[in-house]
Amino acid sequence: MAPPQKGKQLTKGAKQIVEENEGTLKFYRNLALGSSIIYFFVTFLFMEPFAGLTITMTIISVATQIGSFQFMTMMSRPQISESGSILDSGTDLNMEGGISEHVKDILIVASGTQLLALISNYFWFLLLAIPIRAIWLLWGSVIKPWLTANNGEQEQQVDEKKQKKLERKMKRMR
User: Fold this and answer.
1) Which Pfam family, any one, appears in the UniProt record (predicted)?
2) Which of 33, 100, 125, 165 is the most buried (most CB within 10 A)?
């Protein structure tokens, strides 16, 4: 294992980002297609006929996978000039802490749920993890900070009080 580097972290070039994005898209495409093919194959051959719940949840799962994959494709689409050089590499899908990380998680949960639903229909409830996680992220990064934000007037009043108190202390010391 290489020792950790000191100083500035190296950045990726546009060509490297495009190549890594292509590999990432291939992996997640294969994940979505593989889970769907396995699910339909096993269901058609070994399970009883589709029930309304199974059809509905399968449509939701497949739509989630398709939507996530299309969103990742759109995010990572590079802009190439007429001469063939890369103007913009698109969003790096392998960047930590970005929205692509959440989209990849959605695709993984949808694919895993689809495969686990072969064991029991109760595994469809795992799809509820997606909106629960979205609400959690929205609460932590948007709603809670907005609700707990202090008014500027309150802070200004407190600052004026502190300023007066400091002035009184300074007068006493003289």
Assistant:
1) TMEM208_SND2
2) 100
Give the type of residue at 23: G
Residue 21 lies in a domain: yes
Smallest CA-to-CA distance from 115 within 43, 26, 24 is with 43
What residues have CB less than 8 Å from 53, skipping those under 6 apart? 121, 124
Alpha helices in the chain (DSSP H): 14-46, 52-75, 99-116, 129-138, 144-148, 152-173
**pLDDT, tens only, 134-146:** 999 999 888 888 8
Q: Is the pTM of this model over 0.85?
A: no
Tokens of 143: 């709603």
Q: Percent of the chain having pLDDT more than 70?
A: 88
